[in-house]
Design brief:
It is found in: Cytoplasm, Cytoskeleton. It catalyses: n ATP + n H2O + a microtubule = n ADP + n phosphate + (n+1) alpha/beta tubulin heterodimers. Belongs to the AAA ATPase family. Katanin p60 subunit A1 subfamily. Its EC number is 5.6.1.1. It holds the Pfam family Vps4_C. The protein is mainly α and about 575 residues long. It folds into four domains: about 110 residues, no CATH class; about 110 residues, no CATH class; about 200 residues, Rossmann fold; about 90 residues, Helicase, Ruva Protein, domain 3 (Orthogonal Bundle), CATH 1.10.8.60. Helix content is about 60%, strand content about 5%. The protein contains 29 helices and eight strands. The strands form two sheets. Strands 3-5-6-7-4-8 form a six-stranded mixed β-sheet, with helices on both faces. A two-stranded antiparallel ribbon has the order 1-2. It binds adenosine-5'-triphosphate. Adenosine-5'-triphosphate binds next to helix 17, helix 23 and helix 25.
Length: about 575
């Protein structure tokens, strides 16, 4: 019976029963020409399918999948209750039908693997294209920024050249008034305002700059940038040289040299005199505890050549320079001051900041000037503290151009020092100190012929140090300095000084504890001074204050000493 109906059905749609399953299905769909019968009810369709292939009715879940295979099109459902064969392709192409909805209405699960996968791919493609778009935008922005920077640098370079030309014009126009009144003179020359204008584009207003001269200064402070773009730095520097003179001249007027300085940079000499010169550092040998070996070497290298210059000639010439190295707070500066005081030398205490100028070439000029000034004030001791920060290893990737030039100048000056000492009799001694001897430039290390290790204080030195620190302080009879010295092994001289200071304040702390300011004011000063420092105060202070030098530090210094030390 079933077979008979099936055959009838075949005949109805003109299907040949001998054909394959796929062919049969295709014929069924082809029958529904969109022009004639654009709408096929789902029930009708299923009826047809079941008639042709009754096994499919048990597998409705697979139906969409099969239809898709037969039709070669993944999307085939249309309408809420029906299927339009021709609409399948439209729907798919336009992509505006809700697959889930369509399938739900006929109570069939959507072909997840197909429809969603396609939707996912579409979404991915969309996201990718968005990402590419944003990357493109970023690239465009970067290119724009680079271009702007380049243009800015180019403009700075032009500024520098312009300013140079203007300054040269000024120099030829008004030689007399130039140094005192450069700003006006430049403005008279004209073009000054226009140069201030573009510079202000980089964030500095014309007022702040105060016209052309300031712009020269500002442009120069961009030295590196200009160098990067191949700017003519030297010319900017030359302009600057004039500018410095002009700006500093007024300051110089107030500073009267104590001695006659006839070098080429009186303005810088005046500045250095103000900053670093100490004609009497006021530290005696006895103020320095221990360090007898260091004292002996310094006597031989500095004190004796000063007293017996005729003996220290030829092969006996004084050592070019002396380096003191060791952990911080061990008395290097103190020792240098003591030598200068004992020998009646002028003491010049130089740190990195004293020799670092703001303008192009200023650091070298300052260095040159320092040695000229030292000769003018001779006998002089130039003490360069933390020389490693001024003269670290050259040629490193991080080395700055200014610092490289400064180092070269320093080396030249140290060489010159040696010659002038032997001929003019004006003794200038270079004493340097560092906590990082390993960072020193090799050429400088060679010139600092004596390299003295200033170690942590030993037991005897610690005892002496405590006595020096407490010489004017009332001590309780039970205070055992030896015990304090034992307890402070590994402490630097500076640490021990701090312990003594802390211990000596403890009596006062106890005395004022819990009192109001008025009550404290009423305590007699003499009463306060009489409070003796007890052993307990010391022990408390030692407990509170920890040593600042690590054993790794000591090892580092000892290693360097065994390699490069010279005593
Ligand atoms: N041998 C010492 N005799 C007397 N006081 C000392 C001694 N060593 C250190 N001090 C004390 O420590 C303080 C710091 O010493 P100084 O500045 O000379 O150390 P430094 O070695 O130059 O330190 P840095 O390396 O940090 O510059 C001194 O003012 C002094 O109070």
């Amino acid at each position: 019976m079933m077979k008979k109906q099936k055959l009838e059905n075949y005949q109805m749609v003109g299907v040949d029963a001998a054909k394959s399953k796929e062919e049969k299905m295709k014929i069924i769909f082809d029958k529904f020409d969109v022009n004639k019968d654009s709408h096929l009810g789902i029930t009708e369709l299923l009826g047809w399918i079941m008639a042709v292939e009754p096994t499919l009715s048990n597998d409705l879940q697979r139906l969409p999948f099969l239809l898709q295979i037969y039709l070669g099109n993944p999307s085939f459902l249309a309408g809420s209750k029906g299927l339009s064969y021709s609409g399948f392709t439209h729907i798919y192409e336009e992509g505006h039908r809700n697959f889930d909805h369509d399938f739900n209405t006929i109570n069939i699960q959507p072909p997840i693997h197909q429809g969603y996968a396609i939707r996912g791919i579409l979404q991915q493609q969309q996201q990718r294209s968005l990402m590419l778009q944003s990357q493109l935008q970023q690239q465009q922005q970067q290119q724009q920024q680079q271009y702007q920077q380049h243009e800015q640098h180019r403009s700075l370079m032009l500024q520098s050249q312009l300013v140079q030309q203007q300054a040269q014009q000024c120099a030829s126009l008004a030689t007399n008034t130039f140094s005192n009144n450069l700003r006006n003179t430049t403005q008279q020359v004209g073009g000054g305002i226009s140069s201030a204008g573009p510079v202000s584009n980089i964030g500095i207003t014309a007022q702040q700059m105060g016209g052309v001269i300031s712009s020269a200064v500002q442009v120069n402070s961009y030295g590196n940038t200009m160098q990067q773009v191949g700017g003519n730095l030297n010319s900017a520097a030359e302009v600057n040289k004039n500018v410095n003179s002009a700006e500093q001249e007024n300051a110089v007027k107030d500073v009267k040299s104590k001695v006659k300085y006839d070098g080429s940079h009186p303005e810088l000499a005046a500045r250095l005199e103000k900053e670093i010169l100490d004609t009497n550092p006021g530290v005696k040998w006895d103020d320095v505890a221990g360090l007898s070996e260091a004292k002996r070497i310094l006597q031989e290298t500095v004190v004796l050549p000063l007293f017996m210059p005729e003996y220290f000639q030829g092969i006996r010439r004084p050592w070019r320079g002396v380096l003191m190295f060791g952990p911080p707070g061990t008395g290097k500066t103190l020792l240098a001051k003591a030598v200068a005081t004992e020998c009646g030398m002028t003491f010049m205490n130089i740190s990195c900041s004293s020799l670092c100028g703001n303008w192009y070439g200023e650091s070298e000029r300052l260095t040159r000037c320092l040695f000229e000034l030292a000769r003018a004030h001779a006998p002089t001791m130039i003490f360069i503290d933390e020389i490693d920060s001024l003269c670290s290893v050259r040629g490193s990737a991080t080395e700055h151009e200014t610092s490289r030039r400064l180092k070269s100048e320093l080396l030249v000056q140290i060489d010159g020092l040696n010659n002038s000492n032997s001929t003019s009799g004006k003794m200038v001694t270079l004493l340097a100190a560092t906590n990082f001897p390993g960072n020193l430039d090799e050429a400088l290390r060679r010139r600092l012929e004596k390299r003295i290790y200033i170690p942590l204080p030993d037991f005897e030195t610690r005892k002496k140090l405590i006595q020096i620190n407490l010489k004017s302080i009332e001590l309780a009879p039970e205070v055992d300095i030896e015990q304090v010295a034992q307890k402070t092994e590994g402490y630097s001289g500076d640490d021990i000084t701090n312990i003594c200071r802390d211990a000596s304040l403890n009596g006062m702390r106890q005395k004022i504890a819990g009192k109001t300011i008025d009550e404290i004011k009423n305590i007699l000063k003499s009463e306060m001074l009489k409070i003796p420092v007890t052993m307990e105060d010391f022990l408390e202070a030692v407990d509170k204050i920890k040593p600042t030098v690590s054993s790794a530090d000591i090892q580092r210094h000892e290693k360097w000493y065994s390699e490069f030390g010279s005593s």
